[in-house]
Amino acid sequence: MKSIFHPASERGHVNFGWLDSHHSFSFGRWYNPEKVHFGALRVLNDDVVSGGGGFGTHPHDNMEIVSIPLNGSLAHKDSTGTDGIIRTGDVQIMSAGSGISHSEYNYSKTDPVNFLQVWVLPKVLQIKPRYDQKTFDPSGRHNRWQVVVSPEVSDAGLWINQDARFALADISQGSSLDYVSRFSGSGVYVFVIEGELLVDGKTLAKRDGMGIWETDSFSIRALQASSVLAIEIPMILPA
Questions:
Q1: What string of DSSP letters covers 21-64?
Q2: Which pLDDT tens digit goes with each residue over 120-138?
């Protein structure tokens, strides 16, 4: 098993007033040649948008974009005709494909919204743009993995145009949880949303990340009550 540790303190950071964002991988004005991607995982941004703030209409293409609100709600509108609200407990995915334009704003005029914005390189280029979102019951991730994004219908998550899987777990203090890879040759990026975990002998605190590959499974132990996101991803970039 191989691994790489990305402490939260070494993430990129920008603050535009309306947006306070930390980048696990190179993004926008922040570039680190050692943190461009982890396999097909290209972006993992931890965004806080102030009340009434947001991203105006802008284009994307050939990227799978997943949004996971941690606190608060987002108003989303795009060129597929979607116009709705993404709340805490929801997960959103957008296949930019051949080209899509969208906007995202804090639904609240007063309270901040915190969400994870994740970009994954697609398996097939130039597909028809698509949008989907789903509400997930948090009780379904208590000391177990709740798959929220997957190309396999049997996982009951949102479909993604890639051999990738997103899973959330809330782990009680002192409990352990194994992650078993679904796809051959994949790697897993572990991101601590809250708490403190022990992974491969390494302690991970809030917002730390660790990439793990060349193994079919590994174990996570919660040193305190923790919430974690595991992103399984192809390690070989699409041609």
A1: EEESS-BTTB--TT-S-BTTEEEEEEEEE-TT-EEEEEEE-S-E
A2: 999 999 999 999 999 999 9
